[in-house]
Amino acid sequence: MAKFMPLSLNFLITFLILLQSANAAYNVVSFGAKPDGHTDSTPSFLEAWTMACSSVHPATLYVPHGTFLVKTAVFSGPCKFKVTVIITGTLVAPSNYQVIGQTGFWIKFINVSGLSIYGGTLNAMGTSFWACRTTGSNCPTGSRSLSILSSTNVLLSGLTSINSQTEHIGIDLCSNVLIRNLKAFASSQSLNTDGIHVQSSTGITIIGSVIRTGDDCISIGPGNRNVWIQQTACGPGHGISIGSLGNNANEDGVQNVTVTGAVFTGTLNGVRIKSWGRQSNGFARSITFQNIVMKDVYNPIIIDQKYCPSGKNCPNQNSGVKISQVTYSNIKGTSSKQEAVTFNCSPSNPCTGITMKQIHITFQNKATTSSCHYAGGTSSGVLIPASCL
Ligand SMILES: *[C@@H]1O[C@H](CO)[C@@H](O)[C@H](O)[C@H]1NC(C)=O
Ligand SMILES: *[C@@H]1O[C@H](CO)[C@@H](O)[C@H](O)[C@H]1NC(C)=O
């Protein structure tokens, strides 16, 4: 037996060293961050990130309990290895909205492959910025709270974002992203405070979000493929939107999006596809909306291809965006006006292949109505409102 002891001890020590280095942890407090809510902790966060990102073993960036004041911060890759960020505390932006409001983002991760962020609360302190947007002048453009840009294999789990200046979370040029149990809250009166905006990305899964804001719950912009949105609670806000599409004449389309198991409460829209009323080579195809409950929703089901805010640069034009293969299945509940289904498609590019099955939406306990312009497809099962396809 004794003969083997040195060997197994050696093994044990090697194992422990490996374990320790594999768990390389960088606590922002060790880099000078103060959980007091008013000391600028930005440099400490960035130094801790640089260490974690350059670690030759998978590393953890740890943000403990407390409130950390963080200004505009870019966490750049590429990193040597996977990085896990564990946040038990809160990141708060300066109360003067000018400080983060000029750059378009507050916290940005860019060019990271293998990034997991667990927990955390982001408070961008957006209320005074919204007031400026609503009543004031010389407001900055405003910033989204968390931007994930040009990254792959990303997990956001259990993040809470409150009072963003503009969007809460933005995903752009990414692939393989999972957002799990996000909470995003802002006033129903705040402008452009979308919960999650996804653009030019592939393989996006969003599960278990609770989003109450002044704008879209989730918006899927141009250039997205393979998006899965499950078990979402939206409202107040503007609902789940594919679009706006067709803002540019030359634009990548949206393909293979599924929204399943959503509840919309008091929202302006439920499930919407929206394009500008002007020329574009964009498209939206293979889109499924299923197993959805509407509670007092103004436009439960809507395709709007005549989007032309302020009547600028698009009056009397037709949308070039081609919408096809859109399925609405098992959608029930109530609307807040009589017309519950609105398909307002492009005269030059009619919607094709719309499928409606098992739709039951009432208004004041009576059947709702539907309206179709340039929309074609098939319907089956219980249909309230009656199909206009
Ligand atoms: C992203 O990382 C690659 C190397 O992997 C580098 O060449 C490129 O410049 C980086 N891009 C940005 C925007 O940082
Ligand atoms: C559509 O997207 C889902 C993920 O949301 C993916 O599993 C599926 O393979 C995609 N389908 C096609 C045809 O690419």
Automatic annotation (TrEMBL):
GO biological process annotation, one example: cell wall organization
SMART domains on file: PbH1 (SM00710)
Residues in the signal sequence: 1-24
GO-annotated molecular function: polygalacturonase activity
Pfam family of the protein (one): Glyco_hydro_28
Keyword Signal assigned: yes
Localization per Swiss-Prot or TrEMBL: Secreted, Cell wall
Family of this protein: Belongs to the glycosyl hydrolase 28 family.
Name by which UniProt lists this protein: Glycoside hydrolase, family 28
UniProt source species: Dillenia turbinata
Organism lineage string: Eukaryota, Viridiplantae, Streptophyta, Embryophyta, Tracheophyta
